[in-house]
Specification:
632 residues; alpha+beta; 4-stranded mixed β-sheet; two-stranded antiparallel sheet
Amino acid sequence: MKKYILSFIALATVCTACNDFEDINNDPFSVDINKAEPEYFLNNSILGAQQDPNIAERVFVLYWKTAARQHLTTGISGGTYDDSYTVEYWKGISEWLNNANATIEVANEKKTLGQGKPHYDNLIQVARIWRAYLMSEFSDNFGPQPIQAFKGVNPGFNSEKEVYYFILDELKDAVAKMKVDQAGPENPNAFDRVYGFKWEQWVKYANSMRMRIAMRISEVDPGKAKTEFEEAANSNMLITTSTDNFTVKEDTGWNPLAGVMSREWNSQILSATLNNMYIGLGGISSVDQLPAAQHTAVKSPDYIGIKYEEQFTTMTNDPSAGYWLDGLPNKIDPRAYKTFYIPGDFDSPVYSLYPTYTNQAKTNYGFLTYANNKKDSINTVNTWNAYTIGNWGEKGQRNGLRNVVGCMPALGKQYREGKNSRIFFASWETYFLMAEAALKGWSVPMSDETAYNKGIQDSFAYNGVSQFYAQYIASTDYNRDGTSVAYSHITEPGLSHVMKYKDPVTTGNLVSVDIKYPVNTIYKNGSVKNDKLTKIITQKYIANMPWLPLESWNDQRRLGLPFFENPAIETPLVNLPNLNSGNYMTNSIQNFPQRLRYPSTFRNTDQDGYTKAVQLLGGQDAVLTPLWWAKH
C-alpha cells in the first residue's frame, strides 16, 4: 500500500510550477501549492473513479458484473482470478484516494498560508464524504485497509470493522460540519461533476451512504448498524428523488469518462440468474409490452421450451436448465425488454450493433450438434434465452447458441454508447434500504411496504415503464425462483410447478414436466422463497441493474440473496473445489466469489503490510475467503 498512498509531505516534495488548470488536471501532483486549488484534486479523484476503459473492462465488467451475475461470464464467478486486473485497479483506487486526501490537505495548507477561501471548509467535508465512498469500495473488494493512509506516515492496516466504523464516523462528522448555505467557488475552472457544489446534495448523499454502510454490517454488528442507520434515515436529508441521484456524465472515446460498459467486444449477454428473476415477475404480459408484429412469438404461460439433452447442461440448480425457449416468455418484468434487446429486433430502441459483430448479430442463427454429428440450424429471431455459467463440457462444444452475439438477449445500447450518466447511488436504493430496515423493526420514517413500493416506482420511472407500476406491485405471479411482487403476498409457491416442453425430434408433441423451484440453501437453509426480505432484495437487484453491480454482489455475499444458481459442472471447476457432481443442487458460500485477492504488487513491495492485512482478513488471501460482514 505504501507504494501508492502518498502523503501530503511527499506531494509537496514533488510540486513544481505549472501554468494553468489544465496542467493541474493532467498531473495533480506537479503543482505549486500557491497555484493549486483543492477542488482540482477533488475533480481528479471523481474523474478517475469513473474508471477508464482499461480499468472498467476489468473491474466493473469482468469482476463486479460477473460476480453479481449481471451477464453471462464465468470468470471470477467460477473462482478464477487475474492478478493483472487487480494490479491496475489497486493502482487506480490508490490514486483516487490520493486525490481525495490531497483535496483536504491542500485546503488546510492554503488556510495555514493565509490563502483560504470561504468554500474550503465545505470542500473539505465533501472530500471526506467522497473518500468514505472510495474506502468502502476498497474494503468491499479486498477487506482490510489502512484508515490512516492519508496522515503522512507509512500506515498500518486496520480490520474491516475498524474501517467501516471509521467510514460511518466520517460521514456523520462531515455532515455535521457542512454549511449548506455557503456559496461555492467562484473559479470558473472549478469542477464538481456530481452536484455542481450544491452542498445540500452532498449532505443527502452522505446520509444515504451512511445507511448503505450501516446495512452492510447489519448481519454481524446489528446494534451499531441500527444506531447509525436510524440516525441517518431520520435526518430528513436523503437521496429520495432522481434529481438527488449521485451520477456522473459519461463520454465517448477512451478517457476516464468513457462509458464503463462501452467496450464493444463484451456484449454483456443476459445471465440465467437475472432471467430467472425476470420471467413471470409482476404478471405483465409480453403482448402488452411489445409491438403487434412480435405477438405471435409470445408463448403460453405454461410452456418452457424445447428440451435439448445433448447440448444443454443440467448439472446445475438453475430451474431453467436444459430448455431452449423458441419464442418470447408469456409474462416478464417490464424492465427486461428495456435493459436487454431481443435477438433480431433491429427496430428496438435499445438494439445495439457494433462493427465487430454486425454481420454475426444480423445472422441470428446458430447450430446445435448431436452426438451422431447431425446438426440443427436454430433461428433465434424473437427468442429469449439465458444460460447458466460454468463448464458445460462436451455439451458446450455442441451448443452454437450459448454466448453467441445475435442469438441471445444482450445489454441495450443506452448503456454502451457513453452517452448516459453513471449512477453511484440512486433514490430507489434509499427506499430499498429503508424497507429492509423497517422490516427489521428499526425506527425509520416509513413502513417497509411503502418504502418497497416507492423503490419499485422510482426504478420503473427510470426505465420508462411507469404505466405498468400499479398492476406490477399487485401481482401474485411467481417468477422462476418462486418469488412474487406483491409485498403482502408471502404464500410459498410449493416445491414445483407443471410446465410443458417439446422434444426436438417430435416437436409437435407437448410433454408435461414438474419444474422444481430452486432451493436457496444459504438463505434460511432454503426454507423460504417468497418472504419479504427476498422480495426487497430481488427488487433492489433488478433496480440496480446494470449501474450498481458491486452493491448487488455485496447483498448476495451479505445475505445469500437473491438466488444465484450454482455454476454448471459437466466438467469440474478446479477453482470451486466444493462444487461437485454430488452436491450441485445445494448452494454454499464456497460456490460463489467472496472478494478480490490483494495484488502481487502489494505482496511484493510491502510484505509486512500484506502479512498484517491477511492476518486481519482471518483467512487465506483467496477469492473464496468471506469478508467480515459476509459471514452468514
